[in-house]
Design goal:
This protein is mainly alpha-helical and 120 residues long. It contains five helices and no strands. It has helices at 4-20, 26-54, 59-79, 91-95, 103-119. It is elongated, with a radius of gyration of 22 Å. The termini are far apart.
Length: 120
């Protein structure tokens, strides 16, 4: 059996090695990617409703979508502390993944809200 002094030395060595080597947990990174996907889908829906209520049509609606997604990307980067590597594989996951994936949801809720407010 190791004595108390020996175990504290081994704990100190193991904590030093943890500081030197950063490991990635694949399950946590998958969860983070899912959260980004859900967040972008949610913001696409909210952005579509807002664009419909404000009466955006044509190109202004799509510009509004890309503006909402750009703000979402900056918000996600800020939430990650502008350091992507502890939470994601690369910056592309924060900035680009799902950028166009929510476009169909945006258009659906944009047209729905526009019809509800301005046509009916």
């Amino acid at each position: 059996m190791a004595s108390h002094d020996e175990s504290s030395v081994s704990r100190k060595k193991s904590s030093d090695s943890v500081d030197e080597i950063s490991t990635f947990n694949a399950e946590n990174m998958q969860i983070n990617a899912k959260i980004i996907s859900y967040s972008r889908t949610f913001m696409s829906i909210i952005g579509g409703v807002i664009a419909g209520i404000l009466g955006f049509t044509g190109l202004t609606g799509f510009i509004f979508y890309f503006l909402v997604m750009a703000i979402m990307s900056v918000g996600l980067a800020a939430k990650a502390g502008f350091s992507a590597h502890p939470y994601f594989d690369s910056w592309n996951q924060i900035l680009l993944d799902g950028f166009l994936g929510g476009l169909l949801s945006f258009v659906l809720f944009w047209t729905f809200a526009y019809d509800m407010v301005h046509i009916f």
